[in-house]
Amino acid sequence: MKSESAKGVSLRDSTFTDEYYEQAWSQIASSISSQEEERIEQTLSLIPGDSSSILDVGCGDGRITNRLNSLYSKVVGLESSREALRHVKVEKILGSVDSLPFPNKSFDLILCCEVLEHLPFRVYPGAIEEIQRVAAKYIIVTVPNNEDLGRSSVVCPHCSCVFNVSRHVRSFNQERLKGLFSQFGLQSLQFCLPVKVYPSFLIKGAKFTGLLPKNPFPTTALCPQCGYSSSSSGEASLRAITSDRDRLSVRLLRPLARRLIPTKKRGTWLIALYQRG
Ligand SMILES: [Zn+2]
Quick check: is 247 in a domain? Predict the structure, then answer.
């Protein structure tokens, strides 16, 4: 497998296929973490009052879409995973965000939440064009804030493939969001869930010395090359090593680090509202 970046992370365009997402969605828990709940609430609070029709592109299992149904006159969820779409309770369409089956300006608002960072290169430019073609007034985008794709990557213990554990293939920051749509201007840009972050050289040092686990393989991770996942493999020992280190890190090192090492606060996500014109 080719490594394409200086950090040795292989993030090929074809890494996360449609079939891969079908399998991944079948393993994604329907429960929502408190962090994600906060992001969803903040996203919903940004919807302008004069929006009556909403298209949620890449709606996944409808964790946002299903909440909109009773509040707006028309709500549609579009998603490329049949597996995810099973959970969507509003009008739903199996489709791709780079080919929206609607006339121009069909919806007051298009929601695009936690989608753009997943899109392969062949889909991404078309997706940006399609979203602004079909949105009449507004677009809301949420993405991880300034994610270091290499740092959130793992090595598959079975085939040694390196991949981003959240299946992300691109990273966004404030600057990149500002010029995202040529026909829409940025009206509001919010940070969501500020967390303390340590300087990256300290994290690298802690991983190098073994104080932090180098590449913990979470139970939610699914290898795009060989299909390995720790939850289905029965290789509990791999998880045990990781969790012992994690416990040490959580109990002793993190409280100590919080006291001694200066941190910067950084939002986990960016939430952007755009308006046509
Ligand atoms: Zn693998």
Answer: no
* Residues paired with 272 in a beta bridge: 141, 189
Position 213 in a domain: no
| Total count of domains within the chain | 1
How far is ligand 1, taken at its centre, from the CA of residue 259, in Å?
38
Structure tokens given for 75:
């709500």
Give residue 197 CA to ligand 1 midpoint distance, Å. Answer: 30
- Has residue 96 been placed in a domain? yes
Q: How many CB atoms lie within 10 A of CB 69?
A: 16
**Average pLDDT of adjacent 10-residue blocks, the chain of 277 residues:** 35 67 84 92 97 97 94 96 95 97 98 96 96 98 93 87 91 96 98 85 79 75 88 52 60 75 88 97
**Would you say 78 and 54 are in contact if contact means Cβ atoms under 8 Å apart?**
no
Ligand 1 center from residue 95 Cα (angstroms): 28
Residue 179: CATH number of its domain: 3.40.50.150
pTM summary value: 0.84
Residue 2 covered by a domain? no
Residues with a beta carbon under 5 angstroms from ion ligand 1: 156, 158-159, 161, 223, 225-226, 228
- Cα 155 to middle of ligand 1, angstroms: 8
**How far apart are the CA of 227 and the centre of ligand 1, in A?**
6
> Which residue range(s) make up the domain with 95?
18-195+267-276
Question: How does 232-259 read in b/e, with b if 16+ C-beta sit within 10 Å?
Answer: eeeeeeebeebeebeeebeeeeeeebee
